[in-house]
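pls ignore typos typing on phone
alpha-L-arabinofuranose + seq
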Amino acid sequence: MKKLLLLVGATGTHFLFAQNNIVLNAGNGKDVIDKNIYGHFAEHLGHCIYGGFYVGDTNKTIPNKDGVRLDVIDALKKLKVPVLRWPGGCFADTYHWRDGVGPKKERPSMLNIWWGNVKEDNSFGTNEFLNMCEQLGAEPYLSGNVGSGTPQELADWVKYTSHPNGSSPMTDLRQQYGRPNPWKVRLWGLGNEAWGCGGNMKVEHYANVYRQYATFMTNWNNSDRIYRIASGASDDDYHWTEVLMKELPANMFDALGLHHYSVIDWNKKSSATNFSEEEYFITMKKALLMEELITKHSAIMDKYDPQKKKALAVDEWGGWYDVEPGTNGAFLFQQNTMRDAMIAGATLNIFNNHCDRVKMANLAQAINVLQAVILTREDKIILTPTYHVMEMYNVHQDATLLPLQVTSNKYTVGKESLTAVSASASKDKNGVTHISLVNIDAKNPQPVSIDINGASYKSVTGRILTSDKLQNYNSFDNPGKIVPKTYSGAQLNGPKLSVTIPPFSVVVLELK
Ligand code: AHR
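k done
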């Protein structure tokens, strides 16, 4: 039976709450949370690249290195971005990499047909992206053009980026264009959303196309191998996963993608900031669906790959709302509130807890697009609540997952309920344990009692991200409205840890 707890609110009002219970199995860690779960995504879309990452190498007003904003580099380094996916998205299957290398004056322009038909001048191309990844300390993940490209074009891109000097005309071109040595790109996507903007293919057809493209992408030596990611399912398209697992030869792929957005209704997405509790609830229901999607796609993968050698890469996820009033509808620029912090915290807990199969995830998208971690306006930047959640959670990167059993209260709106509290825990290389807790309940604080098995801790400290309104956000006028604060509400009593999580808050605890 659940324990009931009496809490006294700020006004002296008494609340009676059932207690949430978590069992931390600190001695049972075995799987590592791949740091790439904390990955990002940068598409040539709206102001993600141009104005977001890149302001041009002749820009004298915004501090930059080779055109890449220094404020952005600094913020993303603090986030410890492990991997960055580029150049799309839908854009990837229209992108011809040869247009984006060489002297900028000679690079042809194109129309960005997916995102507003704006002119793409190709001034940010392969060299700019890969050099930027080096600056960031992030691993590049290149999304290849399978929809409108050729196997030769993709094979050449691998050679241009990664093969040893002198081994092909492509590597000569690389040297001619100013890069003395290869970058060595490991992660390659073979198309994006092949079921939609990537060619509207049936999975049976895509499986054959995939095999053809994969055949000609070659490693640069015997030990460093390319890692190939097939364009994966949308949401609950389990047939897509089943066919790929059946039809792709094991030696030709390393991971399957999966895309899932938290959208209320594709035809009526609603405002990013001006939303009701009912709309919030639907968004969270969509976000928490990630648990079921990963479980079911993984179960299919388990049938063909019980040893879990192949990964699930959730290479697009996040909240999707209406664009901000007065902005270009094709640019997908949206503000970021505490609702987004809830999506981020709850989703990252799901990824952590499934780290035996999920080895990479890429939040859509890094800057100025969808659930961004950074918003820019001329020379100003904002770090969003989502940024802060990802920064608080980066303690889990490459740490060992500690299994939890969570018994949570319900968060109820109308006739529907969701699990209020979600959590994940890990032990890092220095033996420090971190527990991340999210309370999505918009009204009620959630008291949590944590039973610790298999370890004894001497101290607990914590950080919290919270605000007084779910709809709050960081603006250019008030960029520091929502920032993580020290949290001293956790109490450690031998093998018991007690904590109360305020409504719509994220708490990360550190146990030593
Ligand atoms: O992230 C925006 C778009 O959403 C991507 O280009 C596409 O892959 C997805 O449909």
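The first helix runs from residue 70 to 79. The first strand starts at residue 4 and ends at 8. more later
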